[in-house]
Amino acid sequence: MTPRRVVVTGLGAVTSIGIGAGEFLAGLRAGRSGAAPITSFDASGFEHSQGCEITDFDAERFVTRLPSAEYGRASHFAAAAARMAVEDAALPVEDLRAARSLVSVGTTDGESRDLDRLVQQEVELGAARMDPVVARRVPAGRLSVAAARELGLVNVEAVTLPTACAAGNYAIGYGYDAVRSGEFDFALSGGADAVCLKTFAGFYRLGTIAPERCQPFDLDRKGILTGEGAGMMLLESLESALARGARIHAEVLGYGLNCDADHPVAPNEDSFARCVRLAHENAGVSADDVDLISAHGTGTKANDVSEARAIRQVFGGRPPRMVSIKSMIGHTMGAASALAAIACTLALREGFIPPTINHVRTDPECDIDCVPNQAVNADLRVVQNNALAFGGNNAVLILGRHEPDGVGGAQAAERGAA
Hints:
By secondary structure, the chain is an alpha/beta fold. The protein has 15 helices and 15 strands. The protein is globular and about 65 Å long.
């Protein structure tokens, strides 16, 4: 069977700068910041506790079928984003239920907010007094199940991928392969995570939580802000999208994965450079074809320099513009690269580059154009979405503007004939 071209027809976003693809787009264009003092847990023992929480998410508004008490906050995010993506795709849910479908969700923490709660109950009350309802919500696999259950899907494979901060790209790549091969008709793919004490405290102990704001690639950057949210894409074959008259936001051209297992937390720039080359090869593009890079761009000293050096290994001395939306929405963990993929898709569709906000002066060791503080208009055809994770899990996704006979067309046909 000839591999099928895979397109993005639906977008669902739950973020601290806007809920829904339209509001997320407006937040990206405006360079909006989601940073504020954390309220999800008692942060009084920490010297600083800024984060990017979602304060206006009402699960009952966005999730209509899911028994809310049976699922945690991250699952609600995933289910809401999945429903948004299906609605954005103008795909009747009855048609989705009748088709062969995949739900793949990436995550770092699963329902660690509930795990925080259980640990507190165990410490204060003893193990016998832990809430069994909350305990049943903890398994990470429930994130993908929640999305499938919210949509009433039965002929479905529900997969949760726990590859930390690269998990969103992993999940989208999984969905791309599933649709491209013809194994599934539709894939709902992305990532979800909720702010939790465990992760905040872990990064704080590593000395990587910024006191006030996230400043990727800035000379004075001080670290990350933890965030939360979900991003889900509806993927289907180009043939399917054209047959039903769907709006095509972008085309998935390919991706690359590797795991260097070199260090628990420090990135390996040589390994990440190899991952970028794998993605280009899989997508049938060259470095010269890439118009924009959505960086992992955490705002830590180690990540930003290593990522910039890896990019120069592949692109040479004049890489394309490289931005980080974590400056706006914080580090949303397993949702990070999924939300960045949605930002890339919107950038391709709308012809603009979102900014890296909070920027004062670029670190000379990074030496990139990070589009500081203000969005710019741009004619984009191919965009690269980077993701690096603890443990050396690297994932790079390549998206293209849908053009029947352009990069997204002729080169996709070449891949299918190879």
